[in-house]
Structures are given as structure tokens and as C-alpha cells.
Please model this.
Amino acid sequence: GPQGNRLDEALFLLSFGHVAAAEGQYARATRLVAAADAARQSLGIPWPACERAAYDMSLAKVREAMPAQAFAVTWTEGLAMAPEQAVSFALAEDTCACAWRTAGLGH
Model:
């Protein structure tokens, strides 16, 4: 159902955000992780444990790398994205469309 799709989108966005953070694309990672968080929050469910680890790791990395003000602005932009928009953003800028498969969502 639509709820399952929304959860898939959240996980998809998180995995792209995780890859971006690992590659040092901090603004991109922040937007994607924020959009993932917004999608997950709209469902009212917490992250599963292994995704939670990827989320925390990505967040820690971008917060450390970016000035607080820049992070706050970029995070807000990510939260404001519609899930479809965020998915397009993830795909459009990605250097390798299969990155989310190889990233393995932080397993």
C-alpha cells in the first residue's frame, strides 16, 4: 500500500544520504537524510535498528563537517522536499545509480 511505498522512499533516501555523507557531499547528504526523516515521520514510525545506525552516522558526519547555520538551512530545505522531489534529487545527482545497492543501508 501507499504506506509501504513511503517507507521504501524513506529508506531509499536514507541510503543515498548515507553514501553522499561517506563521499563528503555534505549538503547533498543533509538534504537527503532530512527528506528521509520527513518521510519516516509522516508515517509515525521509528527507524529500524540498522537504518537508525546509518541515520545517526550520516547525521554525525555532516554536523561535524558543516557550519551549524549551513546545516540548519540545508536540513530545513530537505524537510520541505516532497518525497517524489527528494527521490528525483537523489537520482539526478547520483554518480552511480546502483550506489544504494552497494551501500547496503549501513548493514
Observations:
- Residues 37 and 82 are 12 Å apart (CA to CA).
